[in-house]
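Retry 2 of 3 after timeout on previous attempt. Resubmitting structure tokens to design endpoint.
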């Protein structure tokens, strides 16, 4: 029995399932350029992915790295037009199309990756780090089972002013929702908003705030 529910179940990154990906996680394999990009100042890195998020990761990394590749399994990238223009103008970034990583190698740290097709005559590409940007999986199965509406990505659709879902008395916050930015500080703020309006829902009175 409960008067209200707040879903804050989060999401999980889609992993690059190749030999070495687990062994070198946080030892060369990362999932957030904004968080870990500064570690790669003047080094060579790559982003795996083709969407707008992958291109934005590469743009962030180019602030620090001396070279950033975008490794794409298809024949083109799919960013927003403004980010495509930024990508084309950025001389530090190079896109490698129609290519997959088949293995990540190294010793204590990642040293290189193996490609499924030759790049400049070689299938081995030396890198100091790679950033995986192939999407995330919202943990929303429980929410769906109680009738909460999800978007095409499986994220909980919310009112971004009040954190309410389509089901009365149920709220959601953080990475499980359709919020644009998947960052810790955003999730904390969303949680505060959801808690406020959940309390207001239960008591039917507004909370005095400073």
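Retry 2 succeeded. Sequence:
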């Amino acid at each position: 029995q409960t008067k209200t529910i707040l879903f804050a179940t989060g999401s999980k990154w889609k992993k690059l399932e190749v030999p070495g990906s687990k062994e070198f996680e946080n030892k060369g394999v990362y999932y957030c350029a904004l968080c870990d990009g500064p570690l790669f100042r003047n080094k060579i890195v790559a982003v795996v992915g083709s969407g707008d998020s992958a291109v934005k990761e590469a743009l962030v990394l180019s602030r620090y790295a001396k070279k950033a590749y975008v490794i794409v399994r298809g024949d083109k990238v799919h960013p927003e037009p403004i980010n495509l223009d930024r990508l084309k103008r950025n001389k530090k970034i190079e896109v490698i199309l129609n290519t997959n990583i088949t293995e990540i190698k190294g010793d204590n740290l990642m040293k290189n990756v193996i490609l499924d097709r030759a790049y400049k005559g070689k299938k081995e590409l030396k890198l100091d780090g790679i950033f995986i940007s192939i999407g995330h999986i919202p943990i929303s199965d429980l929410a769906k089972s109680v009738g909460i509406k999800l978007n095409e990505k499986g994220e909980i659709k919310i009112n971004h002013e009040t954190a309410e879902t389509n089901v009365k008395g149920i709220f959601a916050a953080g990475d499980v929702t359709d919020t644009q930015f998947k960052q810790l500080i955003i999730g904390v703020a969303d949680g505060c908003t959801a808690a406020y309006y959940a309390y207001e829902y239960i008591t039917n009175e507004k909370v005095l705030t400073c």
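Attempt log closed. The mean pLDDT is 93.
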